[in-house]
Amino acid sequence: MATAVKKKVTPAVDVTPTGYGPSNSKGRSKKPALEAVPKPAAKATLVRHKFDGSIVKVVGDKIPVREGSRRAEIFALFKDGMPLNEFLASARKIRGGAPDVQIALDKKYIELV
Q: How far apart are CA 51 and CA 103, in angstroms?
């Protein structure tokens, strides 16, 4: 009876993935040098709406939006002679603001004096 002798087969090419396994650096690791991260630049404030005037004058007789809507509640806040800043402060309480002023101006409901 013949006994089969098993030979250890070694591949001709190194099959270890890059970055793993033995290295030739003799225990020294090559870490990249740390660089300081620059401070983020402050964003410039963007003015989305700029109005000519600061006093509200109501010129429309009927609110030009659907009754009972949130925007109708905001439009109901417009009063003759009201400062624009006062309107914006009260409109912010019910999620309104400068876009509502622009819509009212576009629909010719108010004028700014």
A: 12
* Residue 92 covered by a domain: yes
Range of the domain at 75: 61-112
pLDDT tens column, 27-53: 566 677 778 888 888 777 776 778 888
What are the angstrom distances between the C-alpha of 25 and each of 18, 28, 30, 31, 89? 14, 5, 8, 12, 67
| Sequence letter at residue 105 | L
Please give the model's pTM, rounded to 2 decimal places. 0.57
Residue 79, C-beta contacts closer than 8 angstroms, at least 6 positions apart:
56, 58, 87
The distance of Cα 47 from the centroid of its chain, to the nearest Å, equals 16
